[in-house]
Amino acid sequence: MRRGQILGAAFELYRKSFLPFVGMAAALSVPLTLAQTYLLEQVRVEELIKVEGERLVVDPRFWGFLAGSIAIGLATSLLLSILTAGLTRAALHAVAEDRPRMGESMAFAFRRFGSVLWIGLLTALFMLAGFLAFIVPGIIILVRTLLVMPAFVLEGYKGSEALKRSWRLVKGEGWMVFGMWVLAAKAAR
Question: In the predicted model, what is the mean pLDDT of residues 37-43?
Fold first, then answer.
């Protein structure tokens, strides 16, 4: 397929399967969003850390708030990896059979929990290293790793092999992949 055809097919797929895909995403993201909102409503950070004279005073509740925030952040990252794997699998079914299989797709992602977690962690560490080096290498790494989960779900690559496969798939097409990613992000808003 040519670039325009790929983008058109992707938008058509998401248009046809909009409600099942949104339902799948909502099932995982709504509980975490509610937990985050609850945590933020319970405590105001400015009340937990105060400067009194020359001393920094930290309320003991701050550590619980910090632990809760870290736990929710980790859970969000993990569930985002699982959701990406599930949505990729559902998209595969939607293309092959003209209907996504949401339950089977999420079961697929959860059955491969360890692999999904490992790929998500490797990708995050790889991108973090790029962003620490400078912003531009981080963006390049982000673009080059956008196909990690499809390489895992569709082609069966695991761990670092999925990263290498994504890197090879994007090589020479970075600007096109980046553009599609930006368009998809804009469309999701």
Answer: 74
